[in-house]
Structures are given as C-alpha cells and as structure tokens.
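Weekly sync notes, structure subgroup
Attendees: PM, AL, DS (notes)

Item 1: joint prediction request from the bench team. They want all two components modeled as one assembly rather than separately. Inputs as received:
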Amino acid sequence: MKLLDWLVLVGFILFIVVYGVWKGRRNSDLDGYLLADRRMRWYTVALSIMATQASAITFLSTPGQAYADGMRFVQFYLGLPIAMVILSITAVPIYHRLKVYTAYEYLEGRFDLKTRALAGGLFLIQRGLAAGLTIYAPSLIFSLILGLDIRFVILFLGGLVTLYTASGGTKAVEHTHFQQALITTGGMVVAFFTVLALLPKDVSFVEAVSVAGKMGRLNAIDFSFDPQNQYNFWSGLIGGCFLALSYFGTDQSQVQRYLTGRSVAESRVGLLFNGMAKVPMQFAILFLGAMVFVFYQFAAPPLFFNPGEARKIKASASVAQYESLEARHAEATAAKGEEVRNLVRALRTGDARFVANAENDLQAAEGRVRAIRAEAVGLMKANDPRANTNDTNYIFLTFVTSYMPTGIVGLVIAAIFLASMSSTASELNALASTTVVDIYRRLIKPEATERHYLIFSKLATLMWGAFAILFAQYAGSLGSLVEAVNRLGSLFYGTILGIFLLAFYFKRVGGTATFIAALIGEATVLLCARYSSIAFLWFNVIGCLVVIVVALVISPLLGNKRPTQTHPNASEL
Amino acid sequence: MRATLAFALSSSYHAGEEQHRMSDQRPVNEPPPFGRSWTMLYAAVLINLAVLILLFYLFTKVFE
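Output from the run, pasted for the record:
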C-alpha cells in the first residue's frame, strides 16, 4: 500500500469514528441510547439492517467464493425476501405495539421468565463469541496481506468500534451505518469497474462473461434437490427463509435495527427494502468475484493465495518442492491462458463444434492446474497438519493489493474495514441491550434511575467490546473451535425461531411446554450436527419444526399454564 | 439473592412502566410511505424475487 492508500483508509475510518461520536453525543435516557428515541426513517433502518448483515467477511469471502466455486452461493439468500414479508406482517407490529427494547422481553409476557432467559442467554453466548470472530477474521486477513501485527489490527479495529458504540449507542451505530453502507457500496462499484478496466483490451465484456460461464463460474441457479448440497435453489429458498426469519426476527442485533423506526410503516419498509436489495447485492458481489476469476485467466495467479501459509511452507524443509510446484503452476496457467484465448476465438466464430473443442481443451488445461494445486495443498498438510489450506478469503484482497491503482486500493480496503466495523457495532449494541434490559434491569437492579441504566448500558458496551477484543486475540489459537463457533448460528437459530413462532401463532401453548420443546429441539439439532451430513442450512428447519411439534404434543399433557401477563396486551398476541 | 430471585419470578415487574409504554401507541395499520397498500408492497417484493430467480436461471443457461 502506498501513502495515498493509507491516507484514504485512515481518513475514512477517522471520519466514521468522529461522525459516530458526534451523532450520538445527546443521550439522556435508555430509549435514546438503545433505540435512538425510535425516530429513524425507513432508509436509515434499511441501510442499518444491510450494514449489520454485511460484515467484512461478506466482502472478502464472497468474491473469493465465486472465484473458487462459482455464483451458486447467491441461492443462500433466496428465502430472505419471503422472510422479510412474513416479519413485516407479524413481528414488526407486535414489537412496536409492546414497545419492547429487546425481542426476548416479549417472550416473558407471552410465556414466562425462564423462556425469556433461555432465548436471551442463547443470544448472549452465540453473539458474544461471534462478535470476537467478526473482529478476528478480517484482522487476520488484513494483517497477512498488509504485513501488520494482528494484535495491533484487532486492538485498532475493536477499540475504535467500541469507542463510538459505547459513546453514542444506537444513534451512533445507525447514523454511521448509513455512511458506512454508502462508502462500502461505492468502494465495491469502483472495484467492479476497475476489474473490467484491467481485463485484456482484446477481450470484450460479453466474451469475459462467456469465459466465466463456460468455466462454470456463473452457476447462479441449480434446481436439483439434494439435502447434502449446501447451496441449491431448495436449500436456499426453504432453509434460507427459516434462517432469515430467525436472524431478522429473533436476533437482537437485527431486531434492534428496526425497533428504531419511528413507526410500524418505517420499520416495515426498512425490512422490505432489504428484501428487494439483498439478493441483487449478493449477485453483484459474486459477479465481481467471477470477473476477478476471468482476470486471473489472463494474468498468472499465485499458487496459493494465503501469504501466511505460503511463507510457512517456504520457511520449511519442503521449500524446494514447493518452488518446483510454483514453477510448474506458472507454466500450466500460461498454457491455460492460451486455451482461454482459443475459447474466445471459437466463441467469435459462433461455430458450436469449435466452441465444444475449445471447451474440452480448456477443461484439460484447467485439470492440470488443479492437479498441481492439489499437490501443493498436500505438501502443506504434510508439512503442517493444522495448515489452513482454504485460501478463498484471500483471493479478492490479494487481487486488490496487487493490481488496483493507488488510491483505489485504500478505498476498497476502507470499504471492507468499515463493513467489519458496522457489523461489530451492531453486535456490541445488541449485546449491551440484552445485558441491561433482560438481565441487569430485570434480575439484578430493577428500580434504578434512567441515568443509572444509561451509564450501565455504556459500561456493558465497553465490557462486551473488551470481551470481543480479548476473544479475538486468542481466536487464532483455538483451532477447531473457531469453525465450531462459525456454525453456531445455524445450531441455535432454528430453536429460537421455533420459540418465537409458538409465541406468535400458537396461543394455546404455554411456557413450560415451550421450554421443554426448546431443549429437545436443541438436542436434536446438536445430534444432527454431530452424526449426520445434512447441510447446515437445514438445521434451521429441523430445530424450528421439532420445537413446534414437541410443544404441540406435550402442551395438552402439561395443561395450559399461561403466566400472569406482564404486558397488558400480551394475551391479544 | 433470595430477594432478587423472588423479584425475578414476580409477575408484576415494571407493570406501571409497561402500561405507560402501551399508552403511546401508533396505528399499526398506517399506510405505507409509498405504494397504494401494504399488500401491493409485499407482492412487489415477492414478484421481484420471482423475476430475479427467472433472470438468474436464464443467466445460468445462456452462459453455461
């Protein structure tokens, strides 16, 4: 990175931090600090929802995923618009009518304290660990690509987010989300046009897209039904819908975003905008990755994109073998580049026979490149069984720092950095809200002043920020636990969604039946995760259905012991 | 500890505050900021999804 890039990067980050602190400077009570006085317009709510969901990993990993595996990942989001409509009709009016601070607060009115505590507790565990990973994952990539000490990057990133989130609360989070979303979108648009400009001059845009398609990178839709396939139309539409219902309907980091809407209408439109824009946005990021893939068909890619692992193998006794593989890889990719040009020439003729022959030759060349890469991966594993041989997350940033012009590099990295800050800010904000509203005010100190709760909310944000930074510092040494925590969302979301669906739609089911059903549902999901090869998106469906079915079966046996209402209108729900 | 637990299990927590919060209700069925009705807005989101799926399918088929 050049000086100009550093200036752009640091400039954008400082702007966001100062803007956040300034925007959140006036908070006199809990409503202002946790829900921005419920004054937000729909466009702020919409961008805040989108900025919360799109973390740095979205922008780092998604283009790499298209590069390595094609665009089929877009199907993961197909259920999201349906979930947005369902939540707009059901959850939004209920939360607004009860004027809750957290989603779990509603569960006590509908069921009982233990169900509220169970859902809130699951959220704190899952989101608390996830907040550390939201900081750790991009910090690792930034540190390796930019050659910085990871401890410094974690402290810098986590410290700045904690500073403005603790200082300004939800007002700071939502206003900065708006700016962050604009900068991130701008950065990605600039990146896309820069990739196109870097393609060979004699290859048109349509030809570049055709090359990506012929090489299997534009596989956006796959209607085949296979429960073990992570990304196809059915798992995306059904499993993705359940996941989105749970994430947007019951995860406080998202619920808090639309609770800030000044009315039901503003919150609803914020969610619906997300339903309209999210799928095309993901498609665009994946398409950017597909174009990076085409770019690397004409320019030699490194044998392995993760510079940390490449450095490690080069410092080992296997260095000679690895360098030999690098030389073979360079030859094979050059030969493949020729085959790609032959394919482009065949496409220009429009002759199907020529195109088929060129495709076959290209596939053979691609096979040779893959075989060399597989050898390199095998060598790394033999050298260090714990080596991270998945380099998908490093592809896009390697491309950005290697080929993009000065200034644009700083802008794109700033965009990714800000995406990380926006997600982390929402997580800290939601963790603090649940800690204060569902635990501290409910169980420990119920009758304090507004000022007391306000100060405690700031302290809770600082505490969760410190926890996330600390967890991120040690995440690298946790090995397989990191992977386990990554899957944590799908392990718990189904159960939590089941609890909320019972609350919304099954008025005869009481708290104890729901609580027992939730425990059985969670156990079922954990057993599936441990002993089956079912794709993780289906865990959301399984957990949710088990909770609902078990609750409906055991509810008559337990009798309908509804709790005394804490919300005057809870029985109407 | 016992007192805290007893309070936690009591059902009337913050009942007064909840009542106050409930009294400031906005109409749930207020019209959307744009579009003629909520039904139309929901339909627009779902039609948009259907069109995107169709376009993605064509995109996949045309370039495969």
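Discussion: Chain B touches chain A through 40 residues (CB under 8 Å).
Action: AL to compare against the crosslinking data before next sync.
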